[in-house]
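Today's session is about reading a structure prediction critically. Students often jump straight to the picture, but the first step is always the sequence itself: look for stretches that repeat, for charged clusters, for runs of hydrophobic residues. Only then move on to the predicted structure, which in these notes is written as discrete structure tokens rather than atom positions. Here is the chain we will use throughout the hour.
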Amino acid sequence: MDHMIPGKNFFILFPSPMTTLSSHTLSSIPCYLSLHSSSSSPEFLSHPIGNRTDVTGRFGSSRFTTASSIQSNPKILKTNRRSPYGKEIYVDDIDEELCGERDDVPWFADPDEEFAEPTSLDADGQRSKLLIASNTRREQIHRKRVSRLKRYGIEELEGNNYDFLSAEIGIKKAWIPLLDYLRTFGLNDWDLIRIYERRKRSFQVNVCSAKERLEYLLGLGVNHNDMRRILLRQPQILECTVENLLKSRVAFLVDLGIPNSRIGKVITAAPSICTYGVESSLKPTVDYLVQEVGIKERDLSKVIQLSPQILVQRVEITWNDRYAFLSKELRAPRDSIVKMITKHPQLLHYSIQDGLLPRIKFLRSIGMQNTDILKVLTSLSQVFSLSVEGNLRPKYLYLINELQNEVKSLTKYPTYLSLSLAQRIRPRHRFLVFLKKTEGGPFPLRSLVLSDECFCEKWAGTSTKEYLAFRQRLLLQDFADKYRKRR
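Below is the predicted structure for this chain, in token form.
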């Protein structure tokens, strides 16, 4: 006689407890039965197949059977988050700090399209890749599970009826208005599962409160399209009250000199600012930047706008490590290193071994001495953000082979390294050659750092429109050449 085991929207036939089960039969029982809870557990679950366990985890509260095995490896999860200054952050301490996730993705303010794209060099940035790999793995497991379910004649639905989410995390009816609202920001079911896994209590927020908080952020200049990424990185924001938490953080940023028009950009780049305590975390970090690092108070606003993550990272560790490295490697004085940080605070995010050292070694390999390297890096610290093989080396080769310049010219015009080879350097060089405006000898690098209008007026003697048309034709020709090579 077979028993019917109730699932969410289906029934599965299972052999009677009196039936003798072979090891092969047991191994074929789908493990996903644990996803479906029942108010009355079937009798056969008390049969000595394994140990019945009640758990509350990723899939909500459910009962399932586990086979005792010497190969089992239970993991104990415990919170070990700490504030930037070593204090433990308690999960329930919502009034002050909401277990803020550190923002470790470098952010660059309004890059000029003609300037070179920086490469990601932060030491902790690998975590983002691991998260992507984890999500990809989760989706692969889900597809396999769906395939197995279909073999048993079971269909899973993913849509506005929340059947899929109910099966995955066991959502409550009271959450649905909030979930509907969050979906207006482009969050899909997998996104909602990620939020649930990271911060389950965020789903307990009243939808009216959530609207008030997110609309306040939108009013500060946060882009609607960026809200999905913010919620995925920092779902605790749903719990931040406007009066007690959000406004105090905004007031803190304004006091530092950040314009109201830039507040939204800062929060978008580092949403965990909203969850860190002003007195316990943010102010001590600012004090450290001024008193220990040596950044001038008048430069704080610029530094934070360039790298908002600096407010929520362990500044004392990153500063000491990079100061010690640059002092030893280049014999750089403290003032020069402070200038580098002020101009390019993202330097504090970069890995020493994978970010700083390879750039220094490259500059040495092209014939620069430490004094020349220090001049270039102090004047243009953004060099640390540029790819060696994809950016610096091609510009160096073009400088030597096409522009007929020497390496020492970079100490006088280090900005050359930050300019785009395809969008700025090559078009202007080719345009002057086309107009026969270049004389014998090295190409004048100062013609590359001017605006298009000044370049056309002082060097080309033509209209800006004529130059832009030439540049467009050149770019199209380059694109066609690359396309032919790929075929």
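Discussion point for the tutorial: Confidence is low (pLDDT under 50) at residues 1-113, 152-159.
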